[in-house]
Write a structure and sequence with these properties.
Length: about 140
């Protein structure tokens, strides 16, 4: 498939999708799986923290509004543990102030729902491309 990203089998890209809405979470996973990357899911920020602590997550795509640990809190905790991890915040309830706060905390992007799927996937491919370039044997 021409849309698939190339990656090393020893260390495949790993994306974690975090959203409390199962249908939306599964839809994103399905589209990201089609890129040829490893995709895991979590239903909230606390579950995401446990998953991210296990290892190979390079990119977290998270909803902003979730129970127990919201997207901004998750962003801060993830960046504290692993500053190189990229985080994209998705929300249907965004404001300029929230977007600025997310970017100051280190978010790679802040995307309002509903969004154009092709544009979203282009953003994700761009972020993952940075990791490819940083790997041994990647483009310099």
């Amino acid at each position: 498939m021409k849309d698939q990203l190339e990656y090393s089998q020893e260390r495949p890209y790993s994306i974690l999708v975090v959203d409390d809405e199962p249908g939306f979470r599964d839809m994103l996973k399905w589209h990201l799986d089609a890129l040829g990357v490893e995709v895991a899911t979590a239903q909230d920020g606390e579950e995401a923290m446990k998953h991210a602590a296990k290892g190979n997550v390079l990119l977290v795509i998270t909803d902003l509004t979730m129970p127990r640990l919201n997207g901004l809190e998750l962003l801060s905790k993830l960046k504290e543990r692993n500053p190189g991890m990229e985080v994209v915040i998705l929300t249907g309830f965004g404001s300029v102030e929230t977007a600025v706060s997310a970017m100051k905390r280190g978010a790679a992007d802040f995307i309002l729902k509903p969004f154009d799927l092709d544009s979203f996937l282009k953003v994700i491919k761009g972020i993952l491309g940075k990791f490819k370039d940083e790997r041994p044997g990647g483009a310099q």
